[in-house]
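User: Quick sanity check before I run a bigger batch. Here is a single chain. Can you write out its predicted 3D structure?
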Amino acid sequence: MNRSKRDRWAENESLPCVHEPDLKEVVAGGSYMRGEWSREVFGNDHPLVLELGCGQGLFSVDLARRYPDRNFVGVDVKGHRFWRGARTATDEGIGNIAFLRARIQWLDRFFADNEVHEIWLTFSDPQLADKRGTKRLTSKYYQRIYSHILAPGGLLHIKTDSPEFHERTVEDAEQSGMFVRDSSKNVHGETEGRFDPALAMSLAFITAFELRWIREGRRIHYASLENVQDVAESDLAEARLMLQGPPERIQPRYPERPRRS
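Assistant: Done. Predicted structure follows.
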């Protein structure tokens, strides 16, 4: 049955795997579950994996099914999008997955330094006109935020149909302190054995949008960046200023969505 955004928002409030903190409080200086996800949400000490801009959340659900020894959090600012994944996870009783409604530039208000083991970015908006690096989710500023919450040796996985996005991501790794561990300009065209078997299984997951792009003849690019060094405090402060604005900012840059009373 088709459901409106309001229907999905209302149902999200009843799904135990959905977390929708007060974003105004976070922007004003608060935090939510920071450093407590594995213990408080999942009740274990398993590695924590994020999918940022998760959309419907079906990739996160697929990962959670195949890796019960890891915890997964799908992050998106639009809760009506990840309703599908949250509903599926609830119906199937998948206990190692949660969904968080949040803006990615505030990620360090939700996750502590070294708390996360892996991050996935799948088909993010390339934002090719973004010259300042405040919109493209793999700019040096975003990569510094990711590096801050990633554990040493943690990985940032990027999958995209945009060769320009892929190229700029790899270039910005040099300015963020991330090491380019792997890079491919044609994931589905690589020879067998090119990737680690577990990674190959994850890369083989194809969404409906991805299938459409493949049919249009687009090649799917992939890069993995490894967190090999701590972010300098001055670089992290610059990233926060560029992405989050000055500390005295009270109002968020995005509107609160209406809630059903």
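The radius of gyration is 18 Å.

User: Great, the batch can go ahead then.
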